[in-house]
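Quick check before the chapter quiz. The format below is the same one you will see on the exam, so make sure you can read both the input and the output lines.
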Amino acid sequence: MIWWLRIRVLPFAAISLLAVMVLGGMSSSVVLPVPVLTGSVSFPLPVALALPMIPAWFLVHGQGRSDAAAERVACRAIRRWDGGAIIAFAALAMTIGLVESKVLDWYSGIAMGRNFLGYLGLALVIRRVAGPAAATIGVSVFPFACASFGIGVGGRPDFWAWPLHASGSLVALTTVAVLFAAGLLQVGKTRAGAST
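Here is the expected output.
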């Protein structure tokens, strides 16, 4: 029964990923003023850079809904299915981002694809440590924490505030790659301290 919930969540995650990437690319100038606690009065957080957290929520929601003990002895290779779905969604997000950037000339496309990978990696790591509800909350709060605490001298984002970096930032790309790889390694593992 739980396995089917995972499959049913995938179409919602795919639709939300496509919608977020298209709507975010079309509205890349829409910003949300977030108070900065370490400098100027506010930081204009581009909504397009925060939107990719939504499909990450769906994927983590679908992944965190089963009995870990039952899945460890299941005949299906659940870790492979989850890992394959995550890699497929990552490839889809980056492909859409590249098409938006190169074909449609929407500069935020690559950054949105990168941020999707980062939010998903962050959610998977938090899910492993604190559970799926904390993962959703943590990913929801993270871009606002970046905007409030991660703006350095001259209004430039600190290295750890990767959602705010420009599309071509090597620092952000490296940070997201490490975070996504760490999250991918957590797929199928039970939460620390959870009963199995």
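If your answer matched, good. The longest strand covers residues 31-35.
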